[in-house]
From TrEMBL:
This is Carboxypeptidase. InterPro entries: AB_hydrolase_fold, Peptidase_S10, Ser_caboxypep_ser_AS. The keyword ATP-binding does not apply. GO terms for molecular function: acyltransferase activity, transferring groups other than amino-acyl groups; serine-type carboxypeptidase activity. It comes from Triticum turgidum subsp. durum (Durum wheat). It holds the Pfam family Peptidase_S10. PROSITE patterns: CARBOXYPEPT_SER_SER. Keywords: Carboxypeptidase, Disulfide bond, Glycoprotein, Hydrolase, Protease, Signal. One of its GO terms (biological process) is proteolysis. Residues 1-23 form the signal peptide. Belongs to the peptidase S10 family.
Length: 258
């Protein structure tokens, strides 16, 4: 998914504020954001965690602590889909702490206003750019940009293990994996990696409680072939038109299986 010019500008302005090296969480503290005046509603952290030392493959995260009680509230990982969409899309357009407005002039600085429906009202939200090459995540070995779903899940699992080492105060908090669209592939594959890690007694133990998928991709054949029955079931097309579509689909499948 291509970024809008305003979103690209926001990311470019934010990047110099973010330390690149993994360090104590206080060194990842974000003190202010371009386009937003006043104090942030809770503590924000951002930075990189290296998941492959030999290739220099590092994933970028942005953490928004819960505005309620971060000591006990759930930690929720958010993944946008694509594949190839930065999770900053969710941060600035969907469930993040701000509402996003274009600048008053073309190419001007976008404005951020507090979002009263932010998920950070009740949980600590972590937005992860995954895999490397998406958003601000990167690798020093360009061959890493040719990847697959299983490698993406393995890298995200390594990221989580290192992230919980960096933030040990959240190891006992309920942890959820969430996202949308192609994250319907990312989420269950990552959850499987996390569960296997728990069974293998990997440390730190991730307190996985579940996952949430919205508008999720599952399988191309099932997803695409469900559009017409869904439209008919919702009363969006007539029964006559539905039967025509089904007949055309039947003929198509007959030709494909010859």
């Amino acid at each position: 998914m291509a970024s809008t010019p305003s979103l690209t500008l926001l990311l470019a302005l934010l990047l110099p504020l973010i330390p690149l090296a993994v360090a104590a969480p206080e060194k990842h503290l974000v003190t202010h954001l371009p386009g937003f005046g006043g104090a942030l509603p809770s503590k924000h952290y951002a930075g990189y965690i290296t998941v492959d030392e030999s290739n220099g493959r590092s994933l970028f995260y942005y953490l928004v602590l819960s505005e309620r009680d971060p000591a006990i509230d759930p930690v929720v990982l958010w993944l946008n889909g694509g594949p190839g969409c930065s999770s900053f899309d969710g941060f600035v357009y969907e469930n993040g702490p701000f509402n996003f407005e274009r600048g008053s002039t073309p190419g001007g600085l976008p404005k951020l206003q507090l979002n009263p429906y932010s998920w950070s009202k009740v949980s600590s939200m972590m937005y992860l750019d995954s895999p490397a090459g998406v958003g601000m995540s990167y690798s020093l070995n360009k061959s890493d940009y040719k990847t697959g779903d299983l490698k993406t899940a393995a890298d995200a699992h390594i990221f989580l293990l290192k992230w919980f080492e960096l933030y040990p105060e959240f190891q006992l908090n309920p942890f959820y994996i969430s996202g949308e669209s192609y994250a319907g592939i990312y989420i269950p594959t990552l959850a499987d990696e996390v569960v296997k890690g728990i069974q293998m007694a990997l440390k730190p133990r991730i307190n996985l409680k579940g996952y949430l998928i919205g508008n999720g991709a599952t399988d191309a054949d099932y997803d695409l072939n469900s559009f017409v029955p869904f439209a008919h079931g919702m009363g969006l097309i007539s029964t006559d038109l539905f039967e025509v579509f089904c007949f055309v689909l039947f003929l198509h499948n007959c030709r494909c299986h010859k």
